[in-house]
Amino acid sequence: MSSSLRPRHFALGFAALCAVAVTLWLTVFKPGPEPPPDPAVAAARSAQEALARVPAQLKERPDVVTGAVRLVAERLPGDAKAIVEAVLAAVDAKHLTPRDVLADAPDAPRPAGDLAPALDGKDVGPAGGLELASLAGAIMRARGLDAPAYGVVPGTKWSATEILARRYVVRSGAGAWLALDRLPLDPAQVKPLDEVGVVANVLAWRALGAMKAGDSSLASQAANNARRLAPEDAALLFLVGKTQVNAGLADMGMASMQRAASMSADALTWFVLGRMARLQEQAFRAEEYLQKATAADPTFIPAHILRAELAIDRLEVTPKDEQPAVLAAAREQVEAAKAVDGEAPGIRIVEANLEAIAEHPDKAEALLREETELHPQSEEAWLLLAQILAVSERDRQAIGVLEDAIAHGVATAEVHKGHGALLASTGQWDDALAAFEAALAKAPADPELRPQVAQLYRANDREPEAKRLLEDQIKRFPNDVTSLLLLAQIELDAGEWDVAQLRIDKARTLAPAVPDVALLDYVAQLIAGRDATAARARTIELVGTRREVAQTLLEQGQVDEAEALLSEALTSEADDAAVPILLAGIYTGTGRDQEAEDLRVKTLGRFSEQDHAQLNQLFDAAIAQAKAQREAHQAPDAPEEALGAPAAPAEEPPAVPDAAPAGEGE
Q1: Looking at the domain assignment, is residue 69 inside a domain?
Q2: Is the pLDDT of residue 666 over 70?
Q3: CATH code assigned at 459
Q4: Which residue, 40, 159, 462, 620, is the most exposed by fewest CB within 10 angstroms?
Q5: Of 204, 231, 265, which marks where a domain is finished?
Q6: Percent of the chain beyond pLDDT 90?
Q7: How far is CA 633 from the centre of its chain?
Q8: Does any domain span residue 629?
């Protein structure tokens, strides 16, 4: 029996030995904890994953070889250094102009094909460091050299948070690094850019170009993708903040920019933050930032100028007895700027503002003229000079100033806009339209331009073009009340009453207290033959007087309703002498000459004899115009349309004496 149990004992013993052996093996050979991942490897992997998620159209690089690039490359030596020298020669000859780090970056990043003709002597406009390096790289590709590689030089002036200030370098294959400027270059300082780094920088430049073009969606998309590719890059975080502000997220954007400044900052960083804070009407915060800017670099003139402008801004909220100290602070900053460079851009603009405040317009004008001579590319100087001339009723001279600005190449949207407004004020409608169209071509995202151009189209009987433009405006800006009203007016004229009313109803929802909205609603009810009682009461309440409402109705051809309002106003607004004058015009225009004369006599009886001459002149003018309109309307070839509005009095009628008996004029 005992022998029959041995195999089982043996099996159990063998199993136990195996268990011990496995335990010993696990104890001896158990793998230790995995080493922590290399942060650099993890970051690189994360960047590659982020790169794969960037949309293809955003990754388009500016160093693509095109026909224009090949044409230039054919005549250049097959040597990287010679190619870079050719690019620099085009810059020296001003066929390529460096971008201003304080300005916008239109069309950035410009492709090499757009810039290449500069090497053949053509002026092609602005190009920054990345664009110049990309141009050189594209030519290297076209010449069949080793693939170009790109790098940046850290620590370049103003580059702490400004992409435009970065110093980019290029080389062919493993060759020597070549700078796209004529400054000394220490190759040991160059930080090479891999594919991720190149795309991150291209995206950053694309964001800058999109902001200038008014495409806030593209700007945000490009900047955020760039940030994901290089999360430790302070300049990219700063750029993300700019795009957030540009998209209307001011608080979020300022917070992003401040985080970037905590990572890396220089005088330009604090200056940009100060400028942003000023735009957000945060004057004290702006001053804090600008103090940091001037402390970081006392020779940074733009910060001194902006501090002076901030001081001038404060005058509006400063008690009169404290204003001299504020003006002194502004002058102190001007003097600090002049101590660095007395001819620097912007100094005379601030001085002109100070002279205007001191009521010395002649001195202000002289300073601005000097600024335009020293810095003919200053948009602000040209616009302010034109403004000073226009305010002093020298519109023709103001027009000439803006034409000079355009001739000097300052053909910006704002200059064209100002030019158009001045031309319109002098009755030069065709030229005004051309100016506004030029402004719209420069700034298609400007919310004010399409309505202005549309109104000029209407004045020139180009209703279909006006309608298309306003429909485009409403697609872009659905809550633009002005455009809704203008389009509704066109639709009313075309008999599209129901469509027009829908637009007016939307405008009323958006702006229930705006008089123009109520006026057009009132007119629409009258045109459509609806009960306008409620619209009438609302309009009178918002506009303020029956006379003002009646004038608009006359302009719209609603003569009967205007007459009814003016008849009421003879009593309710008895102190307004313009009421009987307008009413006399209506009487005359509708063939009731005797009623007009009776109203004149009754009105004169309410005024002293010394006012009779002036009142008679106004009555005569209104009656004469109404007769002329009536005769024109009765002519055989006259258009079938409502009688036009009698002219409003050319001058303010005398006020009714306080002693006038109440109720007269009914």
Answers
A1: yes
A2: no
A3: 1.25.40.10
A4: 40
A5: 265
A6: 73
A7: 46
A8: yes
463 and 581 in a single domain? The answer is no
Q: Kindly state the tokens that stand for 526.
A: 């009258």
SS3 193: strand
Domain that holds residue 587: 575-666
Identify whether 124 is part of a domain. Answer: yes
Of 265, 292, 324, the residue that ends a domain is 265
What digits encode the pLDDT tens for the residues 321-350?
999 999 999 999 999 999 999 999 999 999
- With a CB cutoff of 8 Å and minimum separation 6, the contacts of 568 are 546
Q: Distance between CA 440 and CA 451 in Å, rounded? A: 11
CA–CA distance from 3 to each of 12, 13, 15, 462, 566 (Å)?
A: 15, 16, 20, 119, 133
Q: pLDDT tier at 655 (50, 70, 90 boundaries)?
A: very low
Q: Report residue 95 as tokens.
A: 């066929």
Same domain, 584 and 462: no
Q: What predicted TM-score, i.e. pTM, was given to this entire model? A: 0.75
Q: Each residue of 10-51: pLDDT tens digit? A: 343 434 444 444 443 444 445 555 566 656 555 556 667 878
H/E stretch holding 171 reads strand 168-172
Alpha carbon distances (Å) from 46 to 39, 43, 49, 57, 238: 10, 5, 5, 21, 21
Pick from 121, 173, 166: which is nearest to 143 by CA?
173
Q: How far apart are CA 226 and CA 350, in angstroms?
A: 38
Q: How many folded domains does the chain comprise? A: 3
Q: Is residue 513 part of a domain?
A: no
**179 and 55, same structural domain?**
yes
